[in-house]
Design a protein that fits this description.
The protein is of the alpha/beta class. The protein has nine helices and ten strands. Bound molecules: 3,4-dihydroxybenzoic acid (DHB) and fe (iii) ion (FE). Fe (iii) ion binds next to loops.
Amino acid sequence: MARITASVYSSHVPAIGVAIDQGRTADPYYAPLFAGYEVGRRWAAENTPDVVILVFNDHANAFSLQIVPTFALGMSAEYEPADEGWGPRPVPTVFGHPALSAHLAHSVIRDDFDLTLVNEIPVDHGCTVPLSIMYGQPEEWPCKVIPLIVNVVQYPVPSGKRCLELGKAIRRAVESFDEDLDVQIWGTGGMSHQLQGERAGLINQPWDHEFLERIIDDPEELATMEHVEYVREGGSEGIELVMWLVARGAMADLAGGGEPDEIHRLYHVPASNTAVGQLILEDAASG
Ligand code: DHB
Ligand code: FE
C-alpha cells in the first residue's frame, strides 16, 4: 500500500527560484539562506519519495481571476512551468501520477471535500520554487508531483481547521491506494510577509517562531487560529501559512499514531520581502 513518510513545509518566494536559475546562490545576499538549505537538500537526496503531493496556491497565473476554486487537485500526467510574466522558469516539466490523483480525488471527495478536478494547468512559483530549493537544477525532477492548489488569494479562503482536516483525508486516501508508493506531502507559502499596501515589507519574527513551534506541537490548536490573526500578525500574504496545515494534517499523530520526528527547522530573514521558513517532519509510522 502507499504510505505518507514525511511532510515538508517551505516558503516559495519567487526570488529564491530566480537566484537558483541565475546561479546567484553564492551571492552575499543569498549565501546564508542556501547554506541553511543544505541540510534539507541532503535529506531530500537520501529520502526521495515516489510522489510528492505539493500543496500551494496559484498566484493568479493558472486560474487568472476568472475562476477561483477553493481546493483544486491536479489530475494530469504533466504540468508545464507557468509563464508568470517574464517567460516560464527554466525548470523541468513536472510529471504527475494520474492513477494516484484519481484515487485521491475519489477518496477525498467521498470523504466530503469538494475538490475541483484540474485536468490541465501550468504550475507557478508556488510549486516550482520548493522543488528547486530541495532538488536544485536537475534534468528531470526526481519524483512525481501531484499539485494541490488552495485558494488564499480571494476571500473567503478556507479555514485552518478545514485545511488540517483535508490533510487527514489525504492521509486516509494515500493509505488506501493499492500500490507500494512512498508519498511525501509538502505545504508551501509564508512565512510572514506583506507585498502590498501601507504595511508592505512586514515581517513578524516572534510570531513566525511561535507558528513553527505550534505546527509541530499542537496543530489542532493552531488550526483554530482565525484568518484575521494571520493577516494582522503575519501580513496579507502570511495567510499562505494555512496551507502548511494541509501537510501537517496528513501526519500519523493526528490519526492516532506517534509524534513525527523533527528532521530540520530553518528560519531566515529576509528573502525579497519575506521571512523564509522550512520544516521537515518524518512520519512516526514510516520507521
Ligand atoms: C513573493 C511572492 C510570493 O508568492 C510569496 O509567497 C513570497 C514573496 C514576492 O513576490 O516577493
Ligand atoms: Fe506566495
